[in-house]
Design brief:
The chain folds into two domains: 2-78 and 116-158, PhyR, sigma-like (SL) domain (Butyryl-CoA Dehydrogenase, subunit A, domain 3, Up-down Bundle), CATH 1.20.140; 168-281, Roll (Nuclear Transport Factor 2, Chain: A). The protein contains twelve helices and seven strands. It has helices at 2-24, 27-42, 52-74, 96-101, 106-112, 117-128, 133-140, 144-159, 168-184, 187-193, 214-225, 273-281, and strands spanning 88-90, 194-202, 211-212, 230-236, 239-245, 251-260, 263-270. A hairpin with an 8-residue loop joins strand 2 (194-202) and strand 3. Mean pLDDT is 86; it is low at 96-101.
């Protein structure tokens, strides 16, 4: 029986991981949520579960909801922005197509983090995973009508986010130009590829509002590039990104970009050594 439970859970693990990542924006937290779902499933009575996939999705969503509520209570600033963990793959690697096919943009994840836990759950489950509102309602303890209203409110917030260009080749061309200009110290060339209102945000930075404006971001990019030995182009959440390497052969940072209207609108930076190592060694969610 234990083997049967394990096999049924593994059939659903990838789906649960995708749900948890979109709900939480953290790879570690998503893994914890999926592991807790497994513990509850392994202790359940299988005779009472008719739809295992649906049961596991519901349980995982409730776990994520509790984690979001706990996280929100711990924040010092109610509207503090949290930079999500990246899903990174090499552009020519075998997992690249998985990342592209199953990507969720950084801009979307950042906006999701500003929603209330109930809004986020309703939007993610309905808009990203097509779960009906009558199945979402019991999870958040509201009526189906209230769940629909929560998702609608979240959708309006999401529509205000910077939406990336869909042509990845054009996105890559813009990021290439940014990297070349930064390494060459070409201030004017940087301004040409940066949106005038571009924002740069760093992971786990208390100044979560970030650096704003093309002039300031260009200055920051040129200063940053002086510390970098080489740059590797990668895919970050389905869009072009880069890994910057130090002279000692260690990774310095991973950068994710949001390219809109052929200009860089947002830049997200993760430079914590432990986080960078985790991202580069993480296996993207399989389908």
């Amino acid at each position: 029986m234990t083997e049967w439970f394990a096999e049924r859970f593994e059939e659903n693990r990838a789906h649960l991981s995708r749900v948890a990542y979109r709900m939480l924006g953290s790879l570690d937290d998503a893994e914890d949520a999926v592991q807790e779902a497994w513990l509850r499933f392994s202790r359940s009575e299988n005779s009472g579960i008719e739809n295992i996939g649906g049961w596991l999705t519901t349980v995982s969503a409730r776990i994520c909801l509790d984690m979001l509520r706990s996280r929100r209570l711990k924040r010092e600033e109610p509207l503090e922005l949290n930079i999500p963990d990246f899903i990174v793959s090499r552009e020519e690697g075998p997992e690249a197509e998985v990342v592209l096919a199953d990507s969720v943009g950084l801009a979307l994840l950042v906006v999701l983090d500003t929603l209330t836990p109930a809004e986020r759950l309703a939007f993610v489950l309905h808009d990203l995973f097509a779960l009906p509102f009558d199945e979402i309602a019991p999870i958040i303890g509201r009526s189906a009508t209230a769940a629909r209203q929560l998702a609608s409110r979240a959708r309006r917030r999401v529509q205000g986010a910077a939406m990336p260009d869909t042509d990845r080749a054009r996105q890559r061309k813009v990021v290439d130009a940014f990297v070349a200009a930064a390494h060459g110290g070409d201030f004017d060339a940087l301004l040409a590829v940066l949106d005038p209102e571009v924002v740069l945000r760093a992971h786990r930075d208390p100044a979560s509002r970030g650096i704003r404006g093309a002039m300031s971001v260009a200055q920051q990019a040129i200063g940053f590039s002086k510390l970098v030995q080489s740059t590797e182009f990668v895919i970050v959440n389905g869009s072009p990104g880069i890994v910057s390497w130090l002279p000692n052969g260690k990774p310095m940072a991973v950068l994710g970009f949001v390219v809109a209207h052929d200009r860089i609108a947002e830049i997200y930076v993760i430079s914590n050594p432990e986080c960078v190592e985790q991202l580069l060694n993480y296996r993207p969610l399989s389908r």
